[in-house]
Design brief:
177 residues, mainly alpha, 7 helices, 79% helix, 0% strand, flat
Length: 177
């Protein structure tokens, strides 16, 4: 693997690291677009496989970038991708948190907090929609996911495992049809 591939990993991942408002899931659509459509490092099916591994493994879902780095450039690519994902975000979060704490209680603090919540929600929703579109699972999967989300919103104190197990069971049932 040439040095340009490592640099390409950094060029793709660092900007995404800096905009992970809402968590790692917020960058999945852009990450998929870069790795599958633009750079053609893998197929859409490969991306979904790596996504499934990252989601089922312990740790943050953003570890998907580690698997992408590994797919592109082996172990050294995995290390570079992981550092490119977490180091810039860490530095930014440390700088922002110092300012955030220093100005807690000010009017702009509350306004910014209220303004960022829908942005994070929108980015995570875009990530979910992107993954569902890649899977090509159709309207039934979307309906099950929406119903599960609605149930969790309506009954926030409900044990979250119950609707998720119901949704998983329904997905399994539908896949056998």
């Amino acid at each position: 693997m040439s040095e340009n591939s490592y640099l390409a990993l950094i060029k793709v991942i660092v900007p995404l690291s800096l905009v992970t408002i809402g968590g790692g899931a917020s960058i999945f659509p852009a990450l998929q677009h870069q790795t599958v459509d633009i750079r053609q490092w893998m197929s859409a099916s490969d991306f979904i496989d790596l996504f499934a591994i990252a989601r089922s493994a312990p740790g943050p879902g953003s570890m998907l970038v580690t698997l992408i780095g590994w797919k592109v450039a082996g172990w050294s690519g995995a290390l570079i991708a992981t550092i490119a994902m977490f180091l810039p975000c860490l530095i930014l979060c440390m700088a922002v948190s110092r300012t955030w704490i220093r100005h807690k209680g000010s009017p702009w603090h509350a306004a910014l907090e209220m303004g960022l919540a829908p942005i994070g929600t929108g980015l995570v929703t875009a990530g979910i929609i992107s993954i569902v579109e890649i899977l090509g699972s159709g309207w039934l999967s979307g309906t099950v996911a929406a119903a599960t989300a609605a149930l969790l919103l309506v009954k926030p104190k409900m044990q979250p495992l119950i609707p998720l197990l119901l949704a998983g069971g329904l997905f399994a049932f539908v896949s056998f049809l």
